[in-house]
Structure formats: C-alpha cells, structure tokens
Design a protein that fits this description.
single chain, alpha/beta, 12-stranded mixed beta sheet, 10-stranded mixed beta sheet, 22 strands, disordered N terminus, Fe-S_cluster_assembly_SufBD, SUF_FeS_clus_asmbl_SufBD_sf, SUF_FeS_clus_asmbl_SufD
C-alpha cells in the first residue's frame, strides 16, 4: 500500500456504529473533578465548543516536521502517517505484507467490524465515545498467528490545523505466538487543538507486543488519551510512554490481564515545564491466576507545571498467584511546581505479592554532592542527575531508534531551564 489519493469511504457497519454511539451519548456531558478519576485534573477548563471537528482532509501530503522521526527508524516493517485524523501515507514492506502483516485503514483490514471496539467496548468515558463517533480514519495493525516482525511498525499522528478537534483511533491485534514492536508518535505544529486518541491493544495467547508512544504535541494542545489492553494467557505486553508536550495532556491506561500467566509491563516518563499539566491514570486489572504487572512511571516538574498520577492495582478473587507492582517517582525542580501521586491497591484474594510506592521530592542531594566532589559544577551536576533519572525507562523503550530524539528534547528542556 502507498499514499492514498482520497479518503476511504466508510462502510455501512461503521456508519451504523457511529450513529448508535451518537444517539447513546446525546449531548455529551463532560466529567467533573468531583469524580475520583478526574480529581486534580483541569477538566473544568474544557469547552468542546472551542474546537471544530475536522470533517475532511485539508492536506493530503506529508506534513513538515516528521523527517527526523522517520530517519531515526530507517528500517521499518510498515509506516503510516495520519494528518489531522486522515491517513496521508500508508505503506507495508512487501516482505511483511506477503507474510500476512496488515497495517493501514481499519475498514480495509481483516475482521474490521469485530476489531473496532473489541477491547474498548462501549468506551471507558465520554471522550472515547466521542472518538467512536468522530474518528475519521481508524488504523489497524494485525499480526497473524506465529509471525515475528523483526522491524518496527511506525505510526505518526500529526496535527497542524488551528482550532481543530481530532479523534485518532488505533487498534493493534497480535495473534497467538506472534511478536511485534510499534512506535506511535504524536506530534504537531504550533496550533491550538483538542485531541482525543484511543488505542486498543489485543494480545492473543503467548503474543508479545512492545508498544512505545511518544507525545510531543505543541504547547497549545489539549490531549485526552486512553489506552485499553486485553492480554491473554502467557502473553506479554510492554507499553512505554513518553509525555513532554501539550498544555494539558492526560493519558489513561487500562491493562487487563485476562489469561493465566499474562504479563503487563507499563512504563512512562514525563517532564513538565511552564504551565503544563501532565495527567496519568492507570488501572492494572488482574482477572486470572499467576498474572504479573509491573508499573514504573517517572516524572519531573519545573516552573509552574503540574503532574498527576493516580493508579489502581485490582486483583480479582480468581487471580491467585498474582504479582503486581506500582511505582511512581517524581522530581520537583521548582518551588512553584506541583506533583500529586496517589497509588492504590484493591485485593480480593490471598496468595499474592503486591506493592505500591510513590515519591515526590527535589533532586537527590547525595547524587549532587557525589558529582560536585569530583569537580562537576552544580548546574551541570543537576542536569546529569535529571537526565539520568529517565534512563531506566528509556533503556527499555520498545523502539530504541527514537530514544535519541527523546533525549534531545529533554536536553532542550534543561537548556531552557538553565537560561531562566
């Protein structure tokens, strides 16, 4: 497949689905901070009337600004570029398409009607329901049983229309004993926009998925994202998230371990500056015996920025032999910055190993002293400590080619900090 010349027409089943969801939600009612899952958020500032849904593609060419991303991952099994909600480029290497890998418009993919919503169901909140109604070109990645894809699939979601509302949708289905790595890059021009992405991850028996998402939207974008996964028996999901962009950027992650022996590894880094708010809600749901989840979120806040982390480990009665761990670490780099961290456990059975931990504090003085005692200037020592703080997560990023771009962005943020 190559770059499409025109939008893909919606099949009847998709139009019917959109209309049914639209009737169900009616005039959408936005949540409030009185709801626990929206506590500490800035949801009260949101007015959807401020943005207009993109009804048709304004531009069909590749957007400026994505060259460095593609260059960082030169060997790709497939590449998809979505611009303001519409596919502008879709290509699968012949080697992989001949072996059954599908990457492209969901409506043209295998089992399209059952794939969409197979994990998210009726939607976890009003924003995922709005995504159901308004997603222009849902994307499907389908990996057949037993296929190991040893080059990454790269998706770039780009926003460059002022005042737009966009609802990207991605469904990844990994067949039994299959293995794939996916980069999902969210970028933009310097525009004001509202974006509500939904990602569905469906892992069959003994499947392996490394999903790496990078959120580098512009500073005037509001993003409310959700990621929902079903992990079947003996399958392993590794999900890594980088959040550096946006004015208000929220990422909700629901990882449901459904089959015996399923594993979910959830990792993230985030770095706020200026007036940014970076908001994370995670749910590690153990619905089967001998399941394992490991969560590590590490963030830094500077200037007047804020971060929010609330997480829940829920172990059902049937999930004996569960191992579940949740850790959130935060660096507070300014007296005006603020970080909220609220980990939670809900355990319905015995024979489990579960723990949660969170910290909020300044740069470690012992680490600074160690570097300073060896002649490193204080400002340089602090930069080294902050940059090093994120490496534990970045070293495990599923698509390592883009880690250099992430580190460059962190260094640029530290440069701005030193100039203030």
């Amino acid at each position: 497949m190559t770059s499409p010349d025109a939008p893909t027409a919606s099949p009847t089943w998709l139009d019917d689905r959109r209309q049914a969801v639209s009737r169900r939600i009616g005039d959408p009612v936005l949540p409030s901070t009185e709801e626990e899952v929206w506590r500490y958020s800035r949801i009260g500032e949101l007015d959807l009337a401020d943005w207009s849904t993109v009804a048709e593609p304004a531009e069909r060419g590749l957007p400026a600004g994505i060259e460095a991303i593609l260059a960082a991952v030169p060997e790709r099994a497939a590449t998809v570029v979505v611009r303001n909600g519409f596919i502008v480029h879709s290509e699968v290497e012949l080697t992989w398409s001949e072996r059954g890998l599908y990457v492209g418009a969901l409506v043209s993919g295998p089992e399209a009607e059952t794939a969409l919503g197979s994990v998210s169901g009726d939607g976890i909140d009003v924003f995922s329901q709005l995504n159901d109604v308004n997603s222009a070109d849902p994307i499907l990645i389908s990996v057949p049983r037993g296929l190991t894809v040893d080059a990454p699939v790269v998706l770039i979601d780009w926003i460059d229309i002022e005042g737009c509302a966009v609802y990207p949708r991605l469904v990844i289905r990994v067949g039994a004993n299959a293995d794939v790595k996916v980069l999902d890059w969210h970028g933009s021009a310097d525009v004001s926009a509202f974006v509500a992405p939904v990602v569905e991850l469906d892992l069959a028996h003994a499947a392996r998925l490394g999903y790496g998402s990078v959120q580098m939207r512009g500073p005037r974008i509001w993003q409310v994202a959700s990621q929902v996964s079903h992990v079947m028996a003996d399958a392993t999901l590794t999900s890594s998230h980088v959040a550096l962009g946006g004015d208000y950027a929220r990422a909700r992650t629901d990882c449901r371990l459904i089959g015996k022996g399923a594993t979910g590894n959830l990792q993230a880094i985030y770095f706020g500056e200026n007036e940014q708010t970076l908001d994370f809600r995670t749910f590690q749901k153990h619905d089967a015996p001998k399941t394992t989840s490991n969560l590590l979120f590490k963030g830094a806040v500077d200037d007047h920025s804020r971060s929010v982390y609330t997480g829940l480990i829920k172990v059902e009665k049937v999930a004996t032999g569960t191992n579940a761990f949740q850790t959130n670490r935060n660096l507070k780099l300014s007296e005006h910055a603020w970080a909220e961290s609220v980990p939670n456990l809900e355990i319905e059975t015995n024979d489990v190993k579960c723990s949660h931990a969170s910290t909020v504090g300044p740069v470690d003085l012992e680490q600074l002293f160690y570097l300073e005692s060896r002649g490193v200037p204080t400002d340089v020592a602090e930069r080294l400590v902050v940059a090093g703080f994120f490496q534990e997560v970045l070293e495990a990023f599923p698509v390592p080619g883009v880690v250099g771009l992430v580190n460059d962005a962190i260094e640029q943020r530290l440069d701005r900090r030193s100039e203030r």
